[in-house]
Design goal:
- The longest helix has about 110 residues.
- Helix content is about 70%, strand content about 10%.
- Strands 2, 3, 4, 5, 8 and 9 form a 6-stranded antiparallel β-sheet that branches.
- A hairpin with a 4-residue loop joins β11 and β12.
- The chain is α+β, with helices and mostly antiparallel strands and about 750 residues long.
- α19 packs antiparallel against α20.
- Among the domains are: about 30 residues, no CATH class; about 230 residues, PPM-type phosphatase domain (Phosphatase 2c, domain 1), CATH 3.60.40.
- The relative contact order is 0.04.
Length: about 750
């Protein structure tokens, strides 16, 4: 008898063996447990067993000494080079990433998952490609990078559509949650409904389906359809009890409690809250306990028991601060502000509202929603203080924020999706019934049909036989020729369509690579009081780019505008980005003038023109400034790009050197000069490419022009930089109208 095992089967056997070996030592303390595990590593002759045990050692060591833990993981990575079982290799990289992620070493986790992803691509393993994309997306989502995680979920989704439906349903759920977190309820609901189809089609009664019911209910809750939300939460509660899952039951209880409270049934809310608190205590889930106490505070408030409400809310805030839950702490601070408003202490209320706003803006998730709610509460507090002008302005701001979250098209779309799904289910049931009826009728009519067909067929054949034979001979030649031509046209169309799709897919992938190379725009806020990056490629990828880094006490900001746009421009932007990394990060050169002079030579060398100056004229314009905040100085150099500084209500413009980086002119003929000035607190710096003011549009289809841009900068002087970004984006869109975008656009603003 022969025994045949697949890679997956072998891996499962190994994991069972290792689990048994490890559990044997589980009674011991960490020291003796590690010694025992090292004994297994030394004595075992099976490489895969050794690797699994080393991963367990790394997991234990990581809790006490991260350096030793990482050292063990590195030994695992080295050992994987000699393992032929690719499924085991993927699983080991996945495990290494999860160990690092569990110990908040997020960059290391992402590094191992990226390596696993690249290997899975090489081996064309669909399952692990999708899994690694999901791991990275989950990591980004956990760090509140909701927008960035969606791109990775998109990649996972494209792959999962070719494979396991269960994995596909999971990715649809998670991607929907990413859209939900940024307030895009339409797209979120679209993905949730697709996932629900898969769950119901396969009759999966699982914890994941419970979470999906939760997610769908939450979309309805955000659109103020509380009865509909409660219906989905009650479905989740029933499912949790059917499958006997306590964590899911606790989740469903608190969701139902919130809806009962919203609908005014305070006793029912209290009953569900107390049941949820008991379950979360059993699970030692402190984050959810904090949330339950926050909700319990609201219940006390609704009963006019404000003293008890404030005490319970403060208890919730202590829990959130202790576990580092910024988003929940922001909501709790707002609740405390509301409670002090209700006790006629508006000054104390505003103190908490301002703290809530600060905390909410540190978190990317649900910023729009949190800002809307806090703004409304602050309006009433100012009104109670008698400052009706500020209150009125805040209410207008709240109204604008609320309208963008809950508009008629969103509401209509949610109902359309749900009705569409219900209609599809009914249509399927009707179709099944129709199939059965058709089968019965077919049996009854079979004999009659055959008889009638035979009689009619004979008559018809006699009538048309002569005509048909003659027509057939003439038409056969024409038909064959036409068929051949149609097939050739269809083939050519298919080839063109496939090539276009391949090209577009490649450029979309290039866009993700370019975005991965560029720094996250939000990082600028860690260096300066305020900042923004307005980045709008003409095509999918961009020839404009931005770069910034902090070297000691100096912060360096760069905006580059490469020759061309689209794919050629993108290649140039990556070249410029990499050369800046070499010059600034590796060679430690921070003087803008020196950077441009060295960059000019290296761009020319990299493009390898071979003295064909008339044929090549590739290069880039650039603005570089180095800011030393401790000395209060700024150094600037520009290649055809100025630096604009707004100080109070006037503009200071630093003129560039009239040469480009690269190009046909010899580097020996160029010298990029540097200007050094003092900077003051509240100065605002604007760095930009020429794409913004070169855009055609307006009533006469003319260029926007540089002077109009600087005029807008003066006009917006009193506004926060994030608001300035919004205004600049809207004015560019309105100016462009129906005309084509002529160039890439990049505008960077920073406030000292």
């Amino acid at each position: 008898m022969q025994l045949s095992l697949t890679n997956k089967s072998v891996t499962k056997v190994i994991y069972v063996f290792v689990a048994l070996a490890i559990s044997y030592y589980s009674f011991a303390d960490n020291g003796s447990k590690i010694d025992s595990l090292f004994t297994i590593v030394k004595t075992s002759k099976n490489d895969t067993v050794k690797i699994n045990v080393q991963l367990k050692i790394a997991s234990i060591l990581m809790q006490e000494d991260t350096v030793k833990g990482i050292h063990e993981i590195k030994k695992v990575i080295y050992a994987l080079n000699s393992v032929s079982n690719k499924y085991f290799v993927f699983r080991s990289y996945d495990k290494a990433g999860r160990i690092c992620n569990a110990n908040t070493m997020l960059q290391k986790a992402r590094q191992y998952w990226n390596t696993g992803l690249n290997l899975a691509k090489q081996e064309k393993n669909i399952e692990y490609q999708a899994k690694f994309y999901c791991r990275i997306a989950d990591l980004l989502q956990s760090e509140d990078y909701s927008k960035q995680c969606i791109a990775y979920f998109d990649s996972a989704l494209a792959i999962a559509k070719k494979g396991d439906e269960k994995l596909l349903a999971e990715i649809l759920m998670k991607k929907g949650r990413g859209h939900y977190d940024i307030g895009d309820y339409k797209t979120a609901m679209d993905h949730y409904i697709q996932a629900q189809r898969l769950f119901e089609k396969n009759k999966w009664q699982t914890v994941e389906y419970g979470h999906l019911l939760h997610f769908i209910g939450s979309v309805f809750k955000q659109q103020n359809f509380y009865d509909k939300a409660l219906d989905y939460y009650e479905q989740e509660l029933k499912l949790s009890r059917d499958i006997k899952n306590k964590p899911l039951e606790a989740e469903a209880l608190y969701l139902c409690a919130a809806m009962y409270g919203t609908n005014g049934d305070l006793d029912k809310e209290l009953e569900y809250l107390n049941n949820a608190i008991e379950l979360f205590k059993e699970q030692k889930n402190y984050r959810m306990l904090g949330l339950m106490y926050s909700n319990l505070s609201a219940n006390h408030s609704d009963r006019k028991n404000y003293k008890e409400a404030i005490a319970t809310c403060e208890h919730a805030l202590e829990i959130f601060k202790e576990i580092g839950e910024d988003e929940s702490a922001a909501a709790t601070l707002r609740n405390l502000g509301d409670l002090y408003s209700k006790t006629n202490d508006p000054k104390k209320a505003l103190e908490y509202f301002k703290k809530a706003m600060d905390a909410a803006m540190k978190v990317e998730t649900k910023q729009l929603l949190n800002k809307s709610e806090i703004t409304e509460s602050m309006a009433f507090a100012y009104s109670n203080l008698g400052d009706h002008k500020t209150a009125f302005n805040l209410l207008l701001e709240h109204r604008a924020l609320h309208d963008s979250l809950s508009n008629a098209s969103n509401v209509e779309y949610l109902h359309t999706l749900e009705k569409q799904y219900d209609t599809e289910k009914k249509e399927k049931e009707i179709a099944l019934q129709k199939v059965e009826i058709d089968k019965t009728n077919a049996v009854l009519k079979q004999h009659e049909t055959q008889r009638n067909a035979l009689i009619g067929g004979c008559i018809l054949v006699l009538l048309v036989a002569g005509i048909s034979i003659a027509a057939f001979i003439n038409k056969r030649k024409t038909s064959r020729l036409l068929s051949k031509q149609v097939n050739e046209i269809n083939y050519q169309n298919a080839v063109i369509k496939e090539k276009n799709k391949d090209i577009t897919d490649s450029i979309q992938y290039a866009k993700r690579l370019q975005e991965a190379v560029f720094p996250e725009a939000d990082i600028l806020n860690t260096y300066f009081a305020e900042s923004f990056v307005l980045f709008r490629p003409k095509d999918i990828v961009s020839g404009d780019f931005y770069w910034f880094e902090e070297i000691g006490n100096e912060t360096i900001i760069v905006v580059g505008d490469c020759t061309g746009h689209g794919v050629p421009g993108a290649f140039m932007s990556i070249l410029g980005h990499n050369l800046l990394n070499q010059i600034i990060l590796e060679d430690k050169i921070t003087s803008p003038g020196k950077i441009l002079n060295i960059l000019d030579k290296r761009v020319s060398n990299a493009l390898n023109k071979r003295e064909s100056k008339a044929e090549y004229n590739d290069g880039m314009d650039m603005v570089i400034c180095t800011i030393n905040k401790s000395k209060g100085t700024l150094s600037y150099a520009g290649a055809n790009r100025p630096l604009v500084i707004r100080r109070n209500n006037e503009l200071i413009e630093l003129k560039p050197t009239k040469h480009a980086i690269g190009g046909i002119q010899e580097s020996t003929d160029k010298l990029f000069t540097q200007k050094d000035i003092e900077i003051k607190e509240a100065d605002v710096l604007y760095l930009f490419s020429d794409g913004y003011y070169d855009q055609f549009g307006g009533p006469k289809g003319k260029k926007f022009k540089y002077k109009q841009l600087t005029g807008h900068i003066i006009e917006m002087a009193a506004k926060p930089l994030e608001e300035q970004k919004r205004i600049l984006a809207e004015r560019l869109t309105n100016w462009q109208g129906n005309l084509e975008q002529v160039d890439d656009v990049c505008v960077v603003g920073i406030k000292i």
